[in-house]
Amino acid sequence: METILVLAHTELDGSLAPTALEALGAAKTLQAALPDAKLMIGLAGERVGDAAKAVAASGAARVLGVSGPDFAVSRYATDAAAAEALTRSAGATLVLAAGTARMLRCLPGVAARLGGRADTHVTSLSVADGKVFVSRWYYRQRMEGTLTRAQRPWFIVVDPGSQPAWSGAPGPVAVEEVAVTLTDSARRTTVTGVRQVAADAQTIRPDAELLFVAGAGWTKKQADGQTHVPEAETLIRDFLRLTRASLGSSKSLVDLGGEGQAVLSFLSHLNQIGQTGATPRHPKGLSTCCHGEEPHTVGWRFIGERRAISLDPNCGWARGKADVLYVADAFAVLRKVNELLARG
Ligand SMILES: Cc1cc2nc3c(=O)[nH]c(=O)nc-3n(C[C@H](O)[C@H](O)[C@H](O)COP(=O)(O)OP(=O)(O)OC[C@H]3O[C@@H](n4cnc5c(N)ncnc54)[C@H](O)[C@@H]3O)c2cc1C
Q: What is the distance in A from the centroid of ligand 1 to the CA of 251?
């Protein structure tokens, strides 16, 4: 009989991130397919009370908590100690967690301490003949593998955005506090602050409905023989402001910066989509001024509906990579679209 533990850390305001609710959603699906399985929730953070209330309706048999100022910040030693104590206390055989930076860093180590195994970047879970199987992608999302394991505890770290989030009404819940004794060396690393870009400058938005991709064409000479980079910047910024889309880029465009050419100032290599870039998950994608070559479009694997605007009717998008290709000037299209969006 499996005991499923959902492990989550609370945010600085005491809440649970949507990714944690996705891990809970995956655990509920698993529990439904394993009739004897017990579900438990383990929370770690400075305070866990509010997070526990938020999952009160999940049907968890026990809600366990490790709390205190030592567990507020992301730090391997304390995160691992909390995860280890919660897993032991629950007697968990399957441990599900969201693939946050915090969990990805500590859970493989915790699995080693407990003689278990960890699998990360899991995108789906299933049960066949009473056995749990997980799937993940390999070799830059080219091959999907499905595997099962006999070792327990088995830590299954699910990719954010791959699972439907659990939702339910908040309510009262009794949290069983799990004591963790920390050595001084566990507190040796201190977090002195968090540096992040201003909200307006944040162009990567994993929760956005739409991925907007800018290609190198935005910086190329146009029909009048001139480049129009400042106008491209304005059009893209306005589009992002009006739609709250997430901004992706082709490799060629982000590489131009290193070659000393005029580029869009708000792009970095973090925006790059593709074989050597990111593989984000969004319901829709719109590519602009990009050729749609395989090393780029491989990063679109998890985009639901794909559209592209390119001047080239023979570009990669036209060869089965996009659902719809608009053979058009992206400057003209975006000017018009922004005008319509601004009108509401
Ligand atoms: C090992 C390897 C790994 C790679 N990894 C990646 C990766 O991770 N991600 C990635 O993106 N690439 C990657 N590449 C590079 C990839 O093969 C392409 O070179 C790159 O994607 C091309 O970028 P692009 O389409 O923006 O630029 P270009 O090929 O220069 O295409 C620009 C396009 O813009 C169009 N255009 C110009 N003006 C307009 C206009 N006004 N309106 C509409 N369309 C216009 C042109 O018709 C053209 O189709 C990799 C390559 C290799 C060899």
A: 7
User: What six digits make up the tokens of 58?
Assistant: 């999940």
Strand order in the sheet with 117-128: 143-147, 131-138, 117-128, 154-158, 94-98, 3-9, 38-45, 62-67, 175-177
Q: How far is the CA of 297 from the centre of ligand 1 (A)?
A: 10
Q: Which CATH number does the domain 3-187 belong to among 3.30.470.20, 3.40.630.30, 3.40.50.620, 3.40.605.10?
A: 3.40.50.620
**Length reported for the chain:** 344
Domain boundaries, the chain: 3-187, 199-343
Contacts of 238 (CB under 8 A, 6+ apart): 338, 342
Centroid of ligand 1 to alpha carbon of 214 (angstroms): 9
Query: For atom 51 of ligand 1, which residue has the closest CA?
Result: 295
Record the pTM.
Answer: 0.79
pLDDT in tens, the chain (344 residues): 999 999 999 999 999 999 999 999 999 999 999 989 999 999 999 999 999 999 999 999 999 999 999 999 999 999 999 999 999 999 999 999 999 999 999 999 999 999 999 999 999 999 999 999 999 988 777 789 999 999 999 999 999 888 999 999 999 999 999 999 999 999 999 999 888 777 667 899 988 999 999 999 999 999 999 999 999 999 999 999 999 999 999 999 999 877 766 677 788 889 999 999 999 989 999 999 999 999 999 999 999 999 999 999 999 999 999 999 999 999 999 999 999 999 98
What is Dmax (Cα atoms) for the chain? Answer: 70
Domains 3-187 and 199-343 share a fold: yes
Q: What ligand 1 atom has the least distance to the C-alpha of 250?
A: 11
Pocket test residue of 224, 235, 259, 311 for ligand 1, highest count of atoms within 8 A of CB: 311
Superfamily of domain 199-343: TPP-binding domain (3.40.50.1220)
